[in-house]
User: What shape does this take?
Amino acid sequence: MERRAPVPAQTAECCTVVGNLVRISVLLNSVHIFRGTTDFMAYVIAEPCIGTKDTACVDACPVDCIHPKKDSPAYAEEEMLYIDPVECIDCGACVPVCPVSAIFALDDLPEKWKHFTERNAKYFGR
Ligand code: SF4
Assistant: This one.
């Protein structure tokens, strides 16, 4: 019967390092979730959309994450459209089609409209 060679000390250390990296990764993920959805929101619809509600962005979005849509009862009730921060895939397709330049990547969102980040997320209960 073949005998197995003992595990070298370096291999054991390597396993410990990998284990620690996995633990750190899980911890960081937990912190990310704890801090809330708006921290990883990609694109945000801001003030210029109010009263405009042009839906070119809805048609351009490949993952259908901009709401409410024109055929929804909520469309008449809401004063603007919103991007779902969880569903958004960060593609940017909605930005150039907006006639009033209301859509911004989170990093480019003007300071005066920062609160729209939360407003978009809130619409989806995020
Ligand atoms: Fe949709 Fe892409 Fe715009 Fe996100 S960035 S809302 S996925 S079109």
In short: Strands lie at 43-45, 66-67, 82-83, 103-105.
